[in-house]
Design brief:
By secondary structure, this protein is of the alpha/beta class. The protein folds into two domains: 214 residues, Spore Coat Polysaccharide Biosynthesis Protein SpsA, Chain A (Alpha-Beta Complex), CATH 3.90.550; 62 residues, no CATH class. 46% of the residues lie in helices and 20% in strands. Strands 1, 2, 3, 4, 5, 6, 8, 10 and 11 form a nine-stranded mixed sheet that branches. The longest helix has 21 residues. The protein is globular.
């Protein structure tokens, strides 16, 4: 009889070979005392990373997607193949520190109403990433970026405290399977970005609490796969941002976002940011996005 794992570690892979082995080394070393399974969804990568990982970590299950369906869709597929009571969504450019996952598990077990928990993410010693927040709309995002992020970065370096919050980053996110399934999983219309905030919004709407647990520490490089494609990544961000606003924010916020993006396009064109064939194609994509009255698909 096979014992059900306590934890299913879910990773989505796309051409991040440099970071994959350190990430998996940390998974298998820090979770040695927890019954877990590790499943990686490969989004049609071309760098040979999944084959190397499968050879180095025989218990890792690799699901090969024929194309790149996006971050949320790949996670959903891996979840359907998993069986753990808890789901740990983990980027391949992260490294779990010892005790991180036990601290997250303890937070969820101590609070039956908690749907998910996230750790303190840091890109280097002495620095932190703000991986949580509350209000996500046009005004809320400006306040978050201009005021709250600098404030939290100071506070988290000096005296980090656990807190309830409105959203958590899926760079490292521990969810109850029941809460994830009740919320309906990731919305697969989000190719990249905002899928975690959207999921958190729906888990909260279902009555779940979201916990930031700084006792759990996880290294996160950030931008490992998106940094090499900055223009495409920015467009994916804006497309997902508009979809999120259409789902969860007011009409006023969506209107202001459209105005802001139109102004940004005018400025970008004046500065020559859309030169060449690729630039013109990207500009056309932005215009199609802004002219559409339907949520981005």
């Amino acid at each position: 009889m096979t014992t059900r794992p306590v934890l299913s570690v879910i990773l989505v892979y796309f051409d991040d070979r440099l970071n994959l082995t350190p990430c998996l080394d940390a998974v298998f070393s820090t979770l040695a005392g927890i019954p877990f399974e590790a499943i990686m969804a490969d989004n049609a990568s071309t760098d040979g990373g999944p084959a190397d990982a499968a050879a180095a970590f025989p218990s890792l299950r690799v699901l090969r997607n024929p194309d790149n369906p996006g971050f949320g869709a790949a996670n959903n597929r891996a979840v359907r193949e998993s069986s753990g009571e808890f789901l740990l969504f983990l980027n391949t450019d992260t490294i779990l520190r010892p005790g991180a996952v036990p601290a997250l598990l303890a937070a969820l077990r101590d609070d039956p109403a908690a749907a998910a928990a996230g750790p303190l993410l840091f890109p280097a010693e002495g620095r932190v990433q703000v991986s949580f927040g509350r209000r996500v709309d046009f005004l809320g995002q400006f306040v978050q970026k201009l005021l709250l992020n600098p404030y939290y970065k100071r506070v988290l370096r000096r005296n980090p405290k656990s807190r309830r919050t409105g959203w958590l980053s899926a760079a490292c996110l521990l969810c109850r399977r029941s809460a994830f399934e009740t919320a309906g999983g990731f919305d697969e219309r989000f190719f990249l970005y905002f899928e975690d905030i959207d999921l958190c919004s729906r888990m909260r709407a279902s009555g779940g609490r979201l916990l930031f647990v700084p006792k759990a520490r996880v290294f996160h490089e950030g931008g490992a796969t998106t940094g090499v494609r900055p223009a495409a990544s920015r467009f994916a961000y804006r497309k997902s941002q508009m979809l999120y606003y259409a789902k969860h924010a007011s009409r006023g916020s969506l209107f202001l976002l459209r105005v802001y993006l139109r102004a940004s396009l005018v400025l970008g064109k004046a500065l020559g940011r859309f030169r060449g064939e690729k630039g013109r194609a990207l500009l056309s994509d932005y215009r199609d996005l802004l002219n559409s009255r339907r949520p981005p698909a």
